[in-house]
Amino acid sequence: MIKNLTRGLAALALALTPLTAAGPAQAAPAVEPMLLADAVAALPVAEESRAGYTRTSFKHWNAGLDPADGCNTRAEVLLAEADVAPDVAPGCRLSGGAWSSYYDDQEVTDPARLDIDHMVPLAESWDSGAAAWTAARREAYANDQGAEPSLVAVTARSNRAKADRDPTQWMPPAPGAHCRYLTEWVATKLRWGLTVDPAERDALVGRAENCPAALVHFTPSP
């Protein structure tokens, strides 16, 4: 199943007024949708380096879009992506609800069994350009609710199987998810101006051949 359509509407609204860690930022114009093959060709190619990376370089699961509601970014993504809304207790404790994990085509009714995956993992983003960013920009990246593909609720098992791998090394176990996953991976890299290494570029080019009509939609990050 696809994600709840309300997530798409929420992401569209957020894209019009994107946020940084410091608050509202000037919206960038959306880029015309591109065929996946053309979007892959638009990605800059560079060698990767993980030198100096630590996960703590990316402050994540911050106070979210409305600090007053007690929900951090993780909880807000769960609320936005729910097919059936969970109960919300004081302190934004979630229980019940239902979600579709598109990586492995699983239905989940316990929010504790879900992870919020960074479409392009934090370590991969570091390798691909985020090492040169400010701490504020890395925080904005790690909590990006301004674009639907950036953060996705999936089963903990699939997220941990993916870890920090790129599409050279890992693809969702559900075959029907592959084209969507590729468009969202490429959209996230283009949104944030991240590079691909030669092996990753070659893998994306090859996999894109199986998705000839797939379109990539993205808005450049603030």
Automatic annotation (TrEMBL):
PANTHER family: AMP-DEPENDENT SYNTHETASE_LIGASE DOMAIN-CONTAINING PROTEIN-RELATED, SECRETED PROTEIN. It comes from Streptomyces solincola. Residues 101-205 form the GmrSD restriction endonucleases C-terminal domain. This is GmrSD restriction endonucleases C-terminal domain-containing protein. InterPro entries: GmrSD_C (IPR011089). The keyword Acyltransferase does not apply. It holds the Pfam family GmrSD_C. Keywords: Signal. Residues 1-27 form the signal peptide. The keyword Signal applies.
